[in-house]
Structures are given as structure tokens and as C-alpha cells.
Amino acid sequence: FIEFLKTKLQQEFNGRCQVDGYGNLICKIPPKDSSASEPLMLAAHADTVKPGKGVKPVVRNGVIYSSGDTVLGADCKGGIAEILEAVMSASKHPPLEIVITREEEIGFIGAKNLDYSLISAKRGVLVDMDALDAIVIGGPSHMLIDIEITGKGAHSGMEPEKGISAIKAASLAIATLKDGRIDPETTANFDLIQCRNCFK
């Protein structure tokens, strides 16, 4: 799909396109009837949730649906279609930098690995919202925190008082932290506990 978009943007919009080391697409489109020199970035992501292969679009009452066996993939291929339509139909526009990332659905991995040295735009529009005719200035994000707690081994029969239980320390820490809904915009949870050296 990325290669398809690259070819389309090169052939139809005279784009200078390249795929970065992670597989994200960056295409620079020249201005159209504009003397503006500062580029504007238009961004979306190419991946969808599963199942997303073999999509069969169906039009019912003027609305596009999937046939039911897969997702439609409008998140975010609908955004990509909006970008293509905007570039195609705009009577004028500044230089554009179209950025299409991979692996958004599994944690913004493509954006985190995007080669930002290939982008010069200071302003941009992320086209990934279900709100029609609206501009959204913020969106959900997430933060992962890895905490490592190291205990101290001791003989359980001879000198247990010299030991430090990493499991107990972790449970005490977790018990003092809030989880669930923290405030109207924030949630938190503890999703994985691993014991690295339990059986050594």
C-alpha cells in the first residue's frame, strides 16, 4: 500500500517521495499557484486494525461499508483519501509534505521511528479523526513506564531477615498508586508483571 501511494503521489502530483528506514512514506509536493515557501505537513497512517486484508467495500444508501468479513479500514485510509482529494482539488496550496506512517494501531510505532530529518515543515495537520467539519487540537496518547525492582536473596531457613522480596516491594508500590480513572481525561493500569530471575 505504501508503494502504491508513493507511485501515485509521484505520478499524479509530481511528488519527490522516499520511504524512510522504518517504511514510512514522506512525499514533498511542490506548491500550486502559491508563492509560499514554508511547507505544510499533511499526515495519516496506512495501517488498520485487523481483519483488514481482502476488504470488499459495499455502498448502501450512499454510504460505504465493509462487506462484513473485514473492517472497512477507514481509520485511517479515509484520512489518506482526504489528503489525496485535498491535494487534487485545491486551487492553490503551499509546498506540502505528505507523511504516511506505519504501525499506528499497535502503539504509534511508525511515528516513533519516523526519520524526522526528512521533514522540514514546522506546521502540520494530522488527518485521523471521525469528527466531520471540525478541527481538533489534541488527541489521546499513552505513556508506558517500565519499573524494575531488584530483590536480595537470602536463605529462607537460616537468615530470612537478610532477604528483600522484590514481589512484596512491587505490590506495596502498586497498592499506593492510583489506577482506573484518574481524572476525566486520564486512565492508568498495571498490565504486566514479570519475574526475570525467579527460577535461577
TrEMBL record:
Q: Which PROSITE patterns match?
A: ARGE_DAPE_CPG2_1 (PS00758)
Q: Which residues form the Peptidase M28 domain?
A: 24-132
GO: which molecular function terms?
Answer: metal ion binding; metallopeptidase activity
User: Which keywords label this protein?
Assistant: Hydrolase, Metal-binding, Zinc
Task: Give the required cofactors.
Answer: Zn(2+)
What is one Gene Ontology biological process annotated in the Swiss-Prot or TrEMBL record? proteolysis
Q: Which InterPro entries did the record assign? A: ArgE/DapE_CS, Bact_exopeptidase_dim_dom, Peptidase_M20_dimer, Peptidase_M28
Residues spanning the membrane: none
Q: Which residues form the Peptidase M20 dimerisation domain?
A: 146-195
Give the protein's recorded name.
Answer: Uncharacterized protein
The organism encoding this protein is: marine sediment metagenome
